[in-house]
Design goal:
The chain has 24 helices and 21 strands. Strands 2, 3, 4, 5, 6, 7, 8, 9, 10 and 11 form a ten-stranded antiparallel sheet that branches. Strands 1, 12, 13, 14, 17, 18, 19, 20 and 21 form a nine-stranded mixed sheet that branches. A hairpin with a 4-residue loop joins strand 7 and strand 8. The two termini are 34 Å apart. 47% of the residues are buried. The model has no long low-confidence stretch (mean pLDDT 95).
Amino acid sequence: MWTFDDAPLARVERSLGVRLDGAWLDHLRLASLRLTTGCSAAIVSRDGLALTNQHCVLGCAQSLSRAAQDYVRDGFLTDQRAEEKTCPGMEAEVLVGIADATPMIIASSAGKSGDAYVTARENAIARAERQVCGRDKRLRCQVISFFGGGQFKVYKYREYADVRLVFAPEFDAAFFGGDEENFAFPRFDLDCAFIRLYDTGRPAATPQALAWSLATPKAGEPVFVSGNPGATERGATVAQLEGERDLVLPASEAEHEALRRQLALFEQAGEPENRRLAADAMFNQENDLKVIRGRLAALRDPAFMAARRQEETDLRTALSADPGLASRIGDPWADIEAAQKVEAARYGAWRALESGAGGGSQLFAWARVLVRAAEERAQPTGRRLPEYAGSRLALVEKAVLDDRPVSPALETLRLSLWLGAARDALGAQSPALAQVLGEETPDALAIRLVNSSRLADPAVRRALWAGGLAAVEASDDPMIAFVLRIDPLGRAVRQAWEDEVEGQIDQASERIARARFALQGPERYPDATFSLRLSWGKVAGWREGDADVGPFTTFEGLYGSATSTEPFQLTARWLAAKAALDPATVFNFVTTNDITGGNSGSPVVTAAGAVIGTAFDGNAASIAGDFRYDASRNRTVVVSTAAITEALDKVYGRTALVRELAGR
């Protein structure tokens, strides 16, 4: 997961026998996209067309659907550009520049601690972002911390605020085999989709587009993934991993399982619309649960933890052998361990009132953004909460003002679950709980807030945004009033968290990073941060127990795996197209590339820079890759461009799209 400004090309050549250069990297970087849905994509035509995964646009397809037209169930197909529809809340970003801000940001907080340390850092970060991006509204700058705070880079992005859906297959084709085969292989999934970037109402000019390949991937072929892995913890201390294992992940598992159960009941409640309305949420819950449980399994493995403990011991031993360096670094591991104890004490309130507040309710999220943005915009940008700094405000505004449908039943479900969990976390006698619930039960409060709020109307949200703090404080909307009532609680627990937990861990992690650089050298990649990374590997299967898992599946295998029941049932268009498809076409394949969540939709490219697939999953072993990458077992699962083209042509009849991909 190497950053593009520090890709070790000589090492790539030694590993794979292919020679890359700066021009190759620049071309790939400028054709790679980061999506605000938490996914990646690649520009594949000169008119702004981009390839990603179907599950990355599932929320968009659901938002665009109505009772009479279910784009999740039936797919989203266009014949001409006038039919392409804007994805609410989605933006795409191209990384156009990287600047080092490490000296300035580290100097800003030198000698400070706790809240003063965090505030100084945030002010310096906001200043660095303004300096690099200036007033150009097409650009967005983001300071990203690497190596646990040992390095800070300003990533300058070209923003595309108008992203439109072009093509998405039906859910059953994209997720053939269902949750049962998630994080597994062999797979037979057409998990691809196309979006288009628009600029001032027209398709964006994108001469940097990657070439589209129809070549069949070959075993052993070198391949590269350019995408935005979300988060890994390969540099975490043992104390941090133990906190994940014993506190964070079990709590997250319980939370996701409770929501999954309620969604399943909602789907079965008899309303014909319920399955469509819950599709995106159910997919996310089931996917997240597999990730959580896979991570827990890794952290509960004694051998795995022993290996991480030994790595930490080796670094600390090497540090103690250099008295001068040791005196400057101190004992950051002990500081992190102390901060973890504070985290354990504060986690319940922080999760209930701040990081997990609202339980995923869209109405609550809009209300809190409107309340906080109104309060923060009245402050100088250097004193605002980071997410409301000047360079980030446009993205916040778009997210809150874009029109998207809201299901009152799902809103009530989410709010009720959250309020019940908050009651358990805070305690029945807690003054904070009394402020949250008042005299109402979780269910009654959730029903009242959802049924009475007018925030589903984008015109209401727009008026509150434009009116600022005066309009928000004067609003009689019950969801706004509720957030105004409880927001001081959230701010208070956030302040304590940043002061006593985050600030302490960041300071200590910065010192560990300095020790690593000094003792192990600079040629290392940082943990994932949802920033653009390059991974190299090759097309290869793996050995699972006593069996070899081959690297390819084909259309022939798809039809051989199909049954008459879900989730292995083929849709009518796929059954009708069977005779027309080449059965030997490689459908899905696996590679040794190192990816994690956030890489969904990443282009898989050849040494010549042509796209041969889009990454959409990993195998089961890859889940533990969040903590350590194992090249012998971790695999990236890809849908091939050859299969995508064949399906576009012979299953979906998208001839215009096929011509555009071919450059015609």
